[in-house]
Prior knowledge:
By secondary structure, the protein is an alpha/beta fold.
Amino acid sequence: xxxxxxPKRLSNQQFHIKLCADLGVRSSFGMQxxxxxDASIILNAHSEGRGMQSTVRSLSLAMDQALDSSLTLELIVxxxxxxxxxxxxxxxxxxxxISDKIPVTVKxxxxxxxxxxxxxGINLARGEYVAAVDADDLxxxxxxxxxxxxxxxxDKSVAVHPEYILSFDGHDEIFHTPNSxxxxxxxxxxxxxxxxKIGRAHV
Length: 203
């Protein structure tokens, strides 16, 4: 998660660097105050079909816990060149799994580019914080709640990310994600490697 002190429109390269922890930035919206929504969840999908089911269920549990912690949320689903099964699932099945306390917006785009799709979702977002997630990930139940709680401890723009990532289904690994403020962290390595996005289960 990143606190938004910068302008909301980012280039694709800026977006990729600033959202390397998967959780991102904020914008204002419409007639409502941005304080009315704490976090916007941007879910990007392409051709996952019903494979999105596990992702949506885990995300739903995380969102339910956030609601129990008195956070207000919205879910924005961005379908980039989706196949028919993915589009049908997102429009018909997905909303049923999400609490009726959370507004769900589904948009279809024709970018063929994940960064542009995420930027599109961010520009629609109405929360103070934005989380950019993928339709083939799984999430721990406390991901949103813990991320927002951590962000509120800072007065400056920071990104928070899961402490551990579990990779499975072809490559089994438990990976401890490094903190970019650690003395041994090499920022130049971000040019070729994303430390925070190697697995499919975020804890």
